[in-house]
Design goal:
Blueprint (H helix, E strand, L loop, with lengths): L1 H18 L12 E4 L4 E8 L10 H4 L9 E13 L4 E12 L3 E7 L2 E7 L1
């Protein structure tokens, strides 16, 4: 009985510890990118508004993205981001950019400026 209780407590503790950050990828900020027409890249991650460990849903983020003359935005998936505001690693959602036209532009995406060069 003692072994069963110890096993149960260990499994419960491990699942609690790992559930808060079960996202496997870290989403990095890219302030300057150069890509070719047709290529995609995750530009940055966006944390939840309340510093929780849940990533925002894509449908909640897309309406607040700027218009781009060089490409389109899509869901970059869930992961983690390092947030100065939240004081560490929190859940986030990636903002993916797919280039459709050659040129250069500078966009402000959720408070960060990003330079995009499409060749």
């Amino acid at each position: 009985m003692k072994k069963f209780v110890l096993f149960f407590v260990t499994v419960l503790g491990f699942s609690f510890f790992t559930s808060s950050f079960s996202y496997s990828k870290t989403i990095k900020f890219r302030g300057k990118v150069t890509i070719k027409v047709g290529q995609s890249i995750v530009l940055k991650g966006v944390r939840s508004r309340n510093c929780g460990d849940q990533a925002e849903k894509w449908a909640d983020l897309v309406s607040r993205l700027p218009k781009s003359k060089l490409g389109t935005f899509s869901d970059g998936g869930e992961g983690t981001v390092n947030s100065n505001f939240c004081g560490g690693i929190v859940g986030g959602r990636g903002i993916r950019f797919t280039a459709t036209k050659k040129g250069k532009e500078r966009l402000k995406i959720y408070g960060d400026f990003i330079r995009i060069n499409v060749r």
